[in-house]
Here is the input.
Amino acid sequence: MQGFWVQLLDIYWLGRGVENDYKTILFSTGKPKANGKKLVNIRVPLPPLPDQRRIVAFLDALQAKMDALRRLQAETGAELDALLPAVLDKAFKGEM
Here is the structure.
């Protein structure tokens, strides 16, 4: 998922001409030359505040779903761990 957000930010930045800013500041003769003084000069456009709030709400909802899925996964794992000995017992007794 991280790659998606990087691509989204790239698209957002490229659409606003930031690419030229950071390429000019960070590269000379094809070699990266980033330092604090150069990085401070990069203009980073931000989406309007309503868009930022909508993005945060979306990410919060996504995080809540991920947390719920992790809880379900842990519960399922615990149930499977408890079930395995019983299944093995029946298998060895020839009851399956």
In short: The chain is about 75% helix and 5% strand.
